Amino acid sequence: MVETATVRVAAVQIAPDLTSREKTMAKVLNAIADAADKGAELLVFPETFVPWYPYFSFVLPPVLTGREHLRLYEEAVVVPGPETEAVGTAARRHGMVIVLGVNERDHGTLYNTQLVFDADGTLKLRRRKITPTFHERMIWGQGDGAGLQVVETAVGRVGALACWEHYNPLARYALMAQHEEIHVAQFPGSLVGPIFADQIEVTIRHHALESGCFVVNATGWLTEEQIASVTPDPQLQKALRGGCMTAIIAPEGNHVVPPLTTGEGLLVADLDMALITKRKRMMDSVGHYARPELLSLTLDSRPALPLREAAAALAAPFVPGRPDDETDDAGRAQDGRADQRAAILRR
Protein backbone atom coordinates (compact mmCIF):
# COMPACT_ATOMS: atom_id res chain seq x y z
CA MET A 1 0.00 0.00 0.00
CA VAL A 2 1.19 3.50 -0.83
CA GLU A 3 0.17 5.56 2.18
CA THR A 4 -0.22 8.78 0.20
CA ALA A 5 -2.71 7.11 -2.15
CA THR A 6 -6.33 8.12 -2.48
CA VAL A 7 -8.76 5.51 -3.74
CA ARG A 8 -12.20 6.41 -5.08
CA VAL A 9 -14.75 3.75 -4.15
CA ALA A 10 -18.45 3.31 -4.82
CA ALA A 11 -21.25 1.21 -3.34
CA VAL A 12 -24.51 0.78 -5.22
CA GLN A 13 -27.92 0.42 -3.57
CA ILE A 14 -30.00 -1.13 -6.28
CA ALA A 15 -33.04 -3.29 -6.97
CA PRO A 16 -32.55 -6.55 -8.87
CA ASP A 17 -34.96 -7.68 -11.54
CA LEU A 18 -36.92 -10.47 -9.88
CA THR A 19 -37.88 -12.03 -13.20
CA SER A 20 -34.59 -12.90 -14.91
CA ARG A 21 -30.83 -13.12 -14.49
CA GLU A 22 -30.37 -11.44 -17.86
CA LYS A 23 -32.29 -8.33 -16.82
CA THR A 24 -30.46 -8.10 -13.50
CA MET A 25 -27.14 -8.42 -15.33
CA ALA A 26 -28.15 -5.48 -17.53
CA LYS A 27 -28.54 -3.43 -14.35
CA VAL A 28 -25.11 -4.63 -13.19
CA LEU A 29 -23.40 -3.46 -16.38
CA ASN A 30 -25.25 -0.13 -16.32
CA ALA A 31 -24.19 0.46 -12.72
CA ILE A 32 -20.57 -0.32 -13.61
CA ALA A 33 -20.67 2.24 -16.44
CA ASP A 34 -22.25 4.82 -14.12
CA ALA A 35 -19.60 4.26 -11.46
CA ALA A 36 -16.87 4.51 -14.10
CA ASP A 37 -18.24 7.87 -15.22
CA LYS A 38 -17.79 9.05 -11.63
CA GLY A 39 -14.20 7.83 -11.52
CA ALA A 40 -14.72 4.86 -9.20
CA GLU A 41 -11.80 2.47 -8.85
CA LEU A 42 -13.78 -0.01 -6.72
CA LEU A 43 -17.48 -0.83 -7.01
CA VAL A 44 -19.45 -2.99 -4.58
CA PHE A 45 -22.84 -4.60 -5.27
CA PRO A 46 -25.28 -6.04 -2.67
CA GLU A 47 -25.37 -9.62 -1.41
CA THR A 48 -26.41 -12.25 -4.02
CA PHE A 49 -27.57 -9.46 -6.32
CA VAL A 50 -27.52 -11.73 -9.37
CA PRO A 51 -30.11 -12.90 -10.10
CA TRP A 52 -31.69 -11.77 -6.79
CA TYR A 53 -31.61 -12.41 -3.06
CA PRO A 54 -34.10 -15.21 -2.12
CA TYR A 55 -36.54 -12.92 -0.30
CA PHE A 56 -39.27 -15.53 -0.76
CA SER A 57 -37.56 -17.85 1.73
CA PHE A 58 -37.92 -15.27 4.51
CA VAL A 59 -41.70 -14.89 4.26
CA LEU A 60 -42.92 -18.23 2.88
CA PRO A 61 -43.01 -21.54 4.79
CA PRO A 62 -40.56 -24.11 3.40
CA VAL A 63 -43.33 -26.28 1.98
CA LEU A 64 -44.35 -23.43 -0.34
CA THR A 65 -40.88 -22.39 -1.53
CA GLY A 66 -40.17 -25.22 -3.96
CA ARG A 67 -41.28 -23.42 -7.11
CA GLU A 68 -39.30 -20.24 -6.35
CA HIS A 69 -36.29 -22.24 -5.21
CA LEU A 70 -36.23 -24.14 -8.50
CA ARG A 71 -36.58 -20.88 -10.41
CA LEU A 72 -33.56 -19.57 -8.52
CA TYR A 73 -31.63 -22.67 -9.63
CA GLU A 74 -32.57 -21.95 -13.24
CA GLU A 75 -31.44 -18.32 -13.03
CA ALA A 76 -28.34 -18.82 -10.85
CA VAL A 77 -24.79 -18.06 -12.01
CA VAL A 78 -22.22 -20.70 -12.96
CA VAL A 79 -18.61 -19.70 -12.22
CA PRO A 80 -16.93 -19.26 -14.62
CA GLY A 81 -19.63 -18.47 -17.13
CA PRO A 82 -21.11 -15.76 -19.34
CA GLU A 83 -21.88 -13.49 -16.37
CA THR A 84 -18.38 -13.62 -14.94
CA GLU A 85 -16.97 -13.06 -18.42
CA ALA A 86 -19.15 -9.96 -18.87
CA VAL A 87 -18.20 -8.47 -15.49
CA GLY A 88 -14.53 -9.28 -16.00
CA THR A 89 -14.61 -7.54 -19.38
CA ALA A 90 -16.27 -4.47 -17.85
CA ALA A 91 -13.72 -4.40 -15.02
CA ARG A 92 -10.88 -4.50 -17.54
CA ARG A 93 -12.45 -1.86 -19.78
CA HIS A 94 -12.88 0.60 -16.93
CA GLY A 95 -9.82 -0.38 -14.88
CA MET A 96 -12.10 -1.03 -11.92
CA VAL A 97 -12.11 -3.56 -9.07
CA ILE A 98 -15.64 -5.01 -8.82
CA VAL A 99 -17.17 -7.08 -6.02
CA LEU A 100 -20.38 -8.80 -7.06
CA GLY A 101 -22.67 -10.99 -4.99
CA VAL A 102 -24.26 -13.92 -6.83
CA ASN A 103 -26.28 -17.05 -6.29
CA GLU A 104 -23.75 -19.55 -7.58
CA ARG A 105 -24.91 -22.91 -8.90
CA ASP A 106 -22.43 -25.75 -8.56
CA HIS A 107 -24.24 -28.78 -9.99
CA GLY A 108 -27.00 -29.58 -7.46
CA THR A 109 -26.25 -26.91 -4.85
CA LEU A 110 -26.60 -23.14 -4.66
CA TYR A 111 -24.13 -20.97 -2.75
CA ASN A 112 -24.10 -17.38 -1.54
CA THR A 113 -20.95 -16.32 -3.37
CA GLN A 114 -18.84 -13.17 -3.43
CA LEU A 115 -16.79 -12.56 -6.58
CA VAL A 116 -13.83 -10.15 -6.55
CA PHE A 117 -12.65 -9.02 -9.99
CA ASP A 118 -9.39 -7.09 -10.24
CA ALA A 119 -8.98 -4.03 -12.47
CA ASP A 120 -7.42 -6.18 -15.20
CA GLY A 121 -10.58 -8.31 -15.35
CA THR A 122 -9.21 -11.39 -13.60
CA LEU A 123 -11.37 -13.14 -11.02
CA LYS A 124 -9.16 -12.86 -7.91
CA LEU A 125 -11.51 -14.46 -5.40
CA ARG A 126 -14.60 -16.64 -5.38
CA ARG A 127 -15.75 -17.16 -1.81
CA ARG A 128 -18.88 -18.78 -0.43
CA LYS A 129 -20.70 -17.69 2.71
CA ILE A 130 -19.53 -20.14 5.36
CA THR A 131 -22.85 -20.39 7.24
CA PRO A 132 -26.15 -19.32 5.70
CA THR A 133 -28.43 -17.65 8.24
CA PHE A 134 -31.80 -18.96 9.47
CA HIS A 135 -34.11 -19.25 6.40
CA GLU A 136 -31.09 -19.18 4.06
CA ARG A 137 -30.06 -22.67 5.17
CA MET A 138 -32.95 -24.06 3.13
CA ILE A 139 -31.54 -22.31 0.03
CA TRP A 140 -27.73 -22.39 0.08
CA GLY A 141 -24.98 -24.83 0.95
CA GLN A 142 -22.11 -23.95 3.28
CA GLY A 143 -18.84 -22.45 2.14
CA ASP A 144 -15.39 -23.32 3.49
CA GLY A 145 -12.20 -21.75 4.78
CA ALA A 146 -10.68 -21.49 1.31
CA GLY A 147 -12.65 -18.27 0.82
CA LEU A 148 -11.48 -16.62 4.01
CA GLN A 149 -8.60 -14.84 2.35
CA VAL A 150 -7.52 -11.32 1.54
CA VAL A 151 -6.43 -10.66 -2.05
CA GLU A 152 -4.09 -8.09 -3.54
CA THR A 153 -5.90 -5.82 -6.01
CA ALA A 154 -5.30 -2.57 -7.84
CA VAL A 155 -6.88 -0.68 -4.90
CA GLY A 156 -5.07 -2.54 -2.12
CA ARG A 157 -5.66 -5.62 0.02
CA VAL A 158 -9.35 -6.53 -0.16
CA GLY A 159 -11.30 -8.93 2.05
CA ALA A 160 -15.01 -9.72 1.97
CA LEU A 161 -17.78 -11.16 4.13
CA ALA A 162 -21.50 -11.45 3.56
CA CYS A 163 -24.22 -10.31 5.96
CA TRP A 164 -24.21 -12.09 9.32
CA GLU A 165 -20.76 -13.53 8.73
CA HIS A 166 -19.86 -10.22 10.36
CA TYR A 167 -21.29 -11.66 13.58
CA ASN A 168 -18.64 -14.37 13.49
CA PRO A 169 -15.64 -12.72 15.20
CA LEU A 170 -13.23 -15.46 14.14
CA ALA A 171 -14.17 -15.09 10.48
CA ARG A 172 -13.54 -11.36 10.75
CA TYR A 173 -10.26 -11.96 12.58
CA ALA A 174 -9.10 -14.31 9.82
CA LEU A 175 -9.27 -11.37 7.41
CA MET A 176 -7.87 -8.89 9.90
CA ALA A 177 -4.84 -11.13 10.44
CA GLN A 178 -4.18 -10.94 6.70
CA HIS A 179 -4.05 -7.12 6.95
CA GLU A 180 -7.01 -6.17 4.82
CA GLU A 181 -7.06 -2.51 3.84
CA ILE A 182 -10.52 -2.36 2.31
CA HIS A 183 -13.18 -4.66 3.69
CA VAL A 184 -16.19 -5.31 1.46
CA ALA A 185 -19.48 -6.06 3.22
CA GLN A 186 -22.66 -7.10 1.45
CA PHE A 187 -26.19 -7.35 2.88
CA PRO A 188 -29.54 -8.04 1.16
CA GLY A 189 -31.37 -4.87 2.26
CA SER A 190 -35.16 -4.49 2.19
CA LEU A 191 -35.40 -7.03 4.99
CA VAL A 192 -36.52 -7.18 8.63
CA GLY A 193 -37.14 -3.45 9.02
CA PRO A 194 -35.30 -0.40 10.42
CA ILE A 195 -33.66 -2.41 13.19
CA PHE A 196 -31.70 -4.32 10.53
CA ALA A 197 -30.25 -1.09 9.16
CA ASP A 198 -29.19 -0.10 12.69
CA GLN A 199 -27.55 -3.47 13.23
CA ILE A 200 -25.71 -3.28 9.92
CA GLU A 201 -24.34 0.14 10.81
CA VAL A 202 -23.12 -0.98 14.23
CA THR A 203 -21.49 -4.06 12.73
CA ILE A 204 -19.59 -2.41 9.88
CA ARG A 205 -18.48 0.55 11.98
CA HIS A 206 -17.14 -1.77 14.64
CA HIS A 207 -15.25 -3.85 12.08
CA ALA A 208 -13.63 -0.72 10.66
CA LEU A 209 -12.50 0.30 14.13
CA GLU A 210 -11.29 -3.14 15.14
CA SER A 211 -9.58 -3.98 11.86
CA GLY A 212 -8.23 -0.50 11.22
CA CYS A 213 -9.45 -0.62 7.63
CA PHE A 214 -12.04 0.98 5.39
CA VAL A 215 -15.39 -0.78 4.99
CA VAL A 216 -17.48 -0.44 1.84
CA ASN A 217 -20.96 -1.89 2.30
CA ALA A 218 -23.78 -2.32 -0.23
CA THR A 219 -27.38 -3.33 0.44
CA GLY A 220 -30.17 -4.13 -1.97
CA TRP A 221 -33.53 -2.41 -2.45
CA LEU A 222 -37.02 -3.61 -3.34
CA THR A 223 -39.76 -1.46 -4.85
CA GLU A 224 -43.32 -1.67 -3.55
CA GLU A 225 -44.30 -3.53 -6.70
CA GLN A 226 -41.54 -6.08 -6.13
CA ILE A 227 -42.54 -6.55 -2.48
CA ALA A 228 -46.10 -7.28 -3.58
CA SER A 229 -44.79 -9.83 -6.09
CA VAL A 230 -42.98 -11.73 -3.32
CA THR A 231 -46.06 -11.89 -1.07
CA PRO A 232 -49.54 -10.37 -1.24
CA ASP A 233 -49.90 -10.54 2.56
CA PRO A 234 -49.67 -6.98 4.02
CA GLN A 235 -48.32 -8.31 7.31
CA LEU A 236 -45.53 -10.26 5.65
CA GLN A 237 -44.75 -7.32 3.37
CA LYS A 238 -43.62 -5.39 6.44
CA ALA A 239 -40.70 -7.82 6.71
CA LEU A 240 -39.51 -6.76 3.24
CA ARG A 241 -39.09 -3.06 3.96
CA GLY A 242 -36.27 -1.12 5.59
CA GLY A 243 -32.97 -2.74 6.48
CA CYS A 244 -30.92 -0.67 4.01
CA MET A 245 -27.56 0.78 5.00
CA THR A 246 -25.27 1.34 2.02
CA ALA A 247 -22.27 3.02 3.60
CA ILE A 248 -18.55 3.75 3.42
CA ILE A 249 -16.73 3.70 6.76
CA ALA A 250 -13.27 5.02 7.68
CA PRO A 251 -10.77 3.23 9.98
CA GLU A 252 -11.85 5.49 12.86
CA GLY A 253 -15.39 4.10 12.54
CA ASN A 254 -17.00 7.22 11.07
CA HIS A 255 -19.00 7.56 7.85
CA VAL A 256 -16.88 9.00 5.03
CA VAL A 257 -20.08 10.22 3.35
CA PRO A 258 -23.71 10.05 4.54
CA PRO A 259 -25.19 6.57 4.03
CA LEU A 260 -28.03 5.56 1.72
CA THR A 261 -30.99 4.08 3.59
CA THR A 262 -33.84 4.39 1.08
CA GLY A 263 -34.20 4.11 -2.68
CA GLU A 264 -31.67 3.31 -5.35
CA GLY A 265 -28.45 5.26 -5.65
CA LEU A 266 -24.68 5.24 -5.94
CA LEU A 267 -22.52 6.20 -2.98
CA VAL A 268 -19.06 7.52 -3.95
CA ALA A 269 -16.17 8.53 -1.69
CA ASP A 270 -12.42 9.14 -1.80
CA LEU A 271 -10.46 7.08 0.72
CA ASP A 272 -7.29 8.52 2.23
CA MET A 273 -5.32 5.31 2.69
CA ALA A 274 -2.93 7.02 5.14
CA LEU A 275 -5.73 6.84 7.72
CA ILE A 276 -5.10 3.11 8.07
CA THR A 277 -1.69 3.61 9.63
CA LYS A 278 -2.95 6.51 11.73
CA ARG A 279 -5.53 4.19 13.25
CA LYS A 280 -3.20 1.22 13.66
CA ARG A 281 -0.54 3.35 15.34
CA MET A 282 -2.95 3.53 18.27
CA MET A 283 -4.52 0.06 18.07
CA ASP A 284 -3.44 -2.77 15.78
CA SER A 285 -5.55 -5.81 16.67
CA VAL A 286 -3.22 -8.24 14.92
CA GLY A 287 0.01 -6.41 15.75
CA HIS A 288 1.13 -4.52 18.84
CA TYR A 289 -2.32 -4.88 20.45
CA ALA A 290 -2.41 -8.65 19.94
CA ARG A 291 -1.27 -11.35 22.36
CA PRO A 292 -0.77 -14.34 20.04
CA GLU A 293 0.94 -16.37 22.78
CA LEU A 294 -2.37 -16.19 24.67
CA LEU A 295 -4.96 -15.91 21.91
CA SER A 296 -4.63 -17.05 18.30
CA LEU A 297 -6.71 -18.42 15.45
CA THR A 298 -6.29 -21.61 13.45
CA LEU A 299 -7.80 -21.48 9.96
CA ASP A 300 -8.32 -24.57 7.83
CA SER A 301 -8.03 -23.00 4.38
CA ARG A 302 -8.39 -26.23 2.40
CA PRO A 303 -11.38 -26.47 0.05
CA ALA A 304 -14.06 -28.80 1.43
CA LEU A 305 -14.05 -31.34 -1.41
CA PRO A 306 -16.54 -34.22 -1.50
CA LEU A 307 -13.91 -36.46 -3.13
CA ARG A 308 -10.17 -36.65 -2.61
CA GLU A 309 -8.04 -38.92 -4.76
CA ALA A 310 -5.84 -40.94 -2.41
CA ALA A 311 -4.81 -43.68 -4.85
CA ALA A 312 -1.40 -42.18 -5.61
CA ALA A 313 -0.50 -41.81 -1.95
CA LEU A 314 -1.68 -45.32 -1.06
CA ALA A 315 0.07 -46.94 -4.03
CA ALA A 316 3.46 -45.54 -3.08
CA PRO A 317 5.52 -48.08 -1.13
CA PHE A 318 6.39 -47.08 2.40
CA VAL A 319 10.08 -46.36 2.91
CA PRO A 320 11.14 -45.68 6.52
CA GLY A 321 12.71 -42.26 6.89
CA ARG A 322 11.53 -40.98 3.51
CA PRO A 323 9.96 -37.50 3.75
CA ASP A 324 6.31 -37.19 2.77
CA ASP A 325 5.33 -35.80 -0.59
CA GLU A 326 5.04 -32.03 -0.61
CA THR A 327 1.29 -31.73 -1.02
CA ASP A 328 -1.42 -29.70 0.68
CA ASP A 329 -2.64 -32.94 2.24
CA ALA A 330 0.78 -34.22 3.33
CA GLY A 331 -0.52 -35.00 6.79
CA ARG A 332 -3.51 -36.88 5.44
CA ALA A 333 -1.33 -38.78 2.95
CA GLN A 334 0.88 -39.90 5.82
CA ASP A 335 -2.15 -40.98 7.82
CA GLY A 336 -3.43 -42.87 4.76
CA ARG A 337 -0.18 -44.83 4.43
CA ALA A 338 -0.28 -45.59 8.14
CA ASP A 339 -3.82 -46.92 7.80
CA GLN A 340 -2.75 -49.05 4.86
CA ARG A 341 0.15 -50.56 6.82
CA ALA A 342 -2.15 -51.26 9.75
CA ALA A 343 -4.59 -53.03 7.45
CA ILE A 344 -1.78 -55.22 6.07
CA LEU A 345 -0.66 -56.15 9.58
CA ARG A 346 -4.20 -57.20 10.49
CA ARG A 347 -4.40 -59.70 7.58
Structural overview:
The protein is an alpha/beta fold and 347 residues long. The chain folds into 2 domains: 6-282, 4-Layer Sandwich (Nitrilase/N-carbamoyl-D-aminoacid amidohydrolase); 311-346, no CATH class. It has 11 helices and 11 strands. It has helices spanning 21-37, 56-59, 66-75, 82-94, 169-176, 194-211, 224-230, 234-237, 274-282, 311-315, 330-346; strands at residues 6-13, 42-44, 97-106, 109-117, 123-128, 151-153, 156-162, 182-187, 214-219, 247-249, 265-272. The strands form 2 sheets. The chain has a 6-stranded mixed sheet with strand order 5-4-3-2-1-11. A 5-stranded mixed sheet has the order 6-7-8-9-10, covered by helices on one side. A hairpin with a 2-residue loop joins strand 3 and strand 4. Helix 1 (21-37) runs parallel beside helix 4. The longest helix has 18 residues, at 194-211. It is globular and about 60 Å long. Mean pLDDT is 92; it is low at 330-335 and 341-347.
Structure, briefly:
The chain is α/β, with parallel strands linked by helices and 347 residues long.
Gross geometry:
globular
CATH architectural category of the largest domain: 4-Layer Sandwich
Q: Quote the distance from N terminus to C terminus.
A: 60 Å
Calculate Rg over CA atoms: 22 Å
Order of helices and strands: EHEHHHEEEEEHEHEHHEEHHH
The count of strands amounts to 11
Strand order of the largest sheet: 5-4-3-2-1-11
The CATH C-level name of the largest domain is Alpha Beta
Fraction in helix: 25-40%
> How many strands, which pairing sense, and closed or not: the largest β-sheet?
6 strands, mixed
* CATH homology superfamily name of the largest domain: Carbon-nitrogen hydrolase
* Helix and strand composition category: alpha/beta
What is the domain tally? 2
